[in-house]
Specification:
Protein name: HAD family phosphatase
Radius of gyration: 19 Å
GO molecular function: magnesium ion binding; phosphatase activity
Pfam families: Hydrolase_3 (PF08282)
Strand content: 15-25%
CATH architecture of the largest domain: 3-Layer(aba) Sandwich
Distance between the termini: 16 Å
InterPro entries: Cof, HAD-like_sf, HAD-SF_hydro_IIB, HAD_sf
GO cellular component, one term: cytosol
Helix content: 25-40%
Number of helices: 12
Length: 289
């Protein structure tokens, strides 16, 4: 099979456990792009944070952020945006404020969070290790729902951080039952992502495939999280990182090395060194378009 698109998750995949993009990985991405393979990002990160990674890799094509709710080029030409509307956002915030959790509204230009302090301080860890550019503002307020009355927000994603697994599962079930306008996302840890109904990393990847005229079977998709499973399964070659859980590895066609062992670079060079450049394949009429 000839693969024309490489789709990559960011955290735990492109980046190592310290949040760094290793030179070996950058070189592997450059190598595969020189062969004419299109490279895109498929991430739950906000647009500003994902754009920073895209620019380091010198990518120009559409990429998926906010877990499929925001699809844009690194230059900021957004082609697809789906938001949780202002009224639903307010109602979800009101519901979450009745629980012991930190709430974060993740807009493409800023985040807005409550000041509630959890014992494990998960929100602070998430914010300060996310790699957001300095232009991405993190705002905090003592009463989030009151702030939304004065200044409504329609974010592409809402995040909630809990102290126990039981609290997270209870909130997840209640949101599923109460709010048909949104969906929850499977994660590891005590974080709950809430996105507009109908969007996912898979829907974002399929949107990009359609725009580029690439079949999902011509895609190599690499990820490590539970939320990566659908797009790994849909790809022609689904790859799990060595640091991924058993569930992710079971869903994949191939398992590469871990993020700290440069698993993306290893997979790219193991596979794509055997594939001729796309321009050559077109010249030989092996690829028709």
């Amino acid at each position: 099979m000839i693969y024309r698109l490489l789709a990559l998750n960011i955290d735990g995949t492109l980046l190592d456990s310290a949040g760094k993009l290793h030179k070996t990985t950058r070189e592997a991405i450059s190598y595969v792009r020189q062969k004419g393979v299109i490279v895109t990002l498929v991430t739950s990160r906000n647009f500003a944070s994902a754009k920073k990674v895209a620019r380091v890799l010198k990518l120009n094509e559409l990429f998926v952020s906010h877990h499929g709710a925001y699809i844009s080029t690194p230059a900021g030409n957004a082609e697809f945006i789906k938001r949780i509307n202002e009224d639903v956002t307010y109602e979800i915030v009101r519901f979450l404020e009745g629980l012991q959790c930190q709430i974060r509204l993740v807009h493409e230009k800023f985040s807005l969070a409550n000041k509630l302090h959890l014992n494990n301080n998960l929100l602070a860890k998430a914010i300060f290790t996310s790699g957001d550019p300095l232009t991405y503002s993190h705002q905090f307020t003592a009463d989030l729902s009151d702030s939304l009355v004065d200044t409504p927000v329609a974010p592409p994603k809402i995040e909630a951080y809990f102290e126990t697994e039981q609290e997270l599962q209870d909130a997840k079930q209640a949101i599923k039952t109460t709010f048909s306008e949104v969906e929850t996302v499977d994660n590891t840890g005590l974080k709950l992502d809430i996105v507009p109904a109908g969007v996912s990393k898979l829907s974002g990847l399929l949107y990009i495939c359609d725009r580029l005229g690439v079949s999902p079977k011509e895609v190599v998709a690499i990820g490590d999280g539970l939320d990566d499973i659908p797009f790994i399964e849909a790809a022609g070659l689904g790859v799990a990182m060595g640091n991924a859980s058993y569930e992710v590895k079971r869903a994949a066609d191939w398992v590469t090395r871990s993020e700290n062992e440069h698993g993306v670079a290893y997979m790219v060079k193991e596979h794509f060194r055997r594939q001729h450049p796309i321009a050559f394949l077109k010249k030989m009429n092996i690829i028709k378009k």
